Amino acid sequence: MSDPVHVVCPHCDAVNRLSAERLADQPVCGKCAKGLFVAKPLDVDGARFAKHIGRNDIPVLVDFWAPWCGPCKMMAPAYNQAAQKLEPKMRLLKVDTEQAQELGSRYNIRSIPTLALFLNGKEIARQAGAMDAGSIVAWAQANGAR
User: Fold this and answer.
1) DSSP H helical segments within the chain, as ranges?
2) Any catalytic annotation for residue 32?
3) Catalytic-residue membership of 69
4) Annotated catalytic residue: which of 9, 29, 32, 72?
5) Which among 9, 12, 32, 69 is annotated as catalytic?
6) Half-sphere exposure of residue 100, counting CA atoms within 13 Å on the CB side?
7) CA pair distance 107, 46, nearest whole angstrom
8) Residue pLDDT, tens place only, 63-122
9) CA distances in angstroms from 98 to 31, 95, 101, 103, 134, listed in the order given
10) Alpha-carbon dihedral 31, 88, 144, 99, rounded to 10 degrees
11) C-alpha Rg value of the chain to the nearest Å
12) What is the 8-class DSSP label of residue 14?
């Protein structure tokens, strides 16, 4: 039996503790009873971002983007496809840098789209520029292996 992991619910943001072996068993939140994995990126603000980065024991991949950015719009469907392949081993978030300017500033986001990978609250890898789904998955897996 592996060590338990904490996973933040994408619906109510409750922190759930479960066995790592159960990640692929479609676990549900102990608070709201909804699925812990939704196979799509979560749009988050500053408070939700902090909770997901700080409390998830699984790697968290973040797309820093803006609605006016052409490459960001082009990459959005690929990022959605990547979520379907990377969950439940990773949580995927989207941060609109126009709405959450403090996050863009705090993480020194200078170009968008920028992908940043976090583990245990710390940034462990970063990649700027649009990518296709296969490249996102490959990059995330190569940099997020535990």
Assistant:
1) 46-55, 70-86, 101-106, 133-144
2) no
3) yes
4) 72
5) 69
6) 21
7) 12
8) 999 999 999 999 999 999 999 999 999 999 999 999 999 999 999 999 999 999 999 999
9) 32, 9, 6, 10, 27
10) -60
11) 14
12) -
